[in-house]
Amino acid sequence: MMEHQHNSTDILILKPEEGRVYTCGGMTAVFKADENETSNKYSISEWWLQPNAVGPGAHLHENNDEIFYGIEGTTSILVGERWIDVKRGTFIRIPANTIHDFANNTNERCGVLNFFIPGGFERNMPAIVKWFEGQMENH
What we know:
Blueprint: E1 20-24, E2 27-33, H1 35-38, E3 43-49, E4 65-72, E5 75-79, E6 82-86, E7 91-94, E8 100-103, E9 110-117, H2 125-137
Antiparallel strand pairs: 1-2, 2-3, 3-9, 4-7, 4-9, 5-6, 5-8
């Protein structure tokens, strides 16, 4: 975890696995920079999925574009009505108001780098973590 709050004038250098970590079932988000560090211009996070883990569920963002970039394994990303296999180095831009989701349909961990534009996504993370905890208790 980062030791203190940064702001948009700080140079950020985070090593692997450093950042603000949120565990959501078989999915882990590691936020590298969000509204405080970017003046709310963008949010950057890594999303890691354990083997055969589901993602957040199909959803859209009315005012935010998202970029996904494959960093490890193969992440399946839903864009509209089409699932796309995202391997290391694959880039996807999802415009606002586009249904999307992601999942790991493989037997190996996978991860994507996410850019959320504009920022502020991290405000949602406590509620998302709580929702996933509720799902785990019901199964």
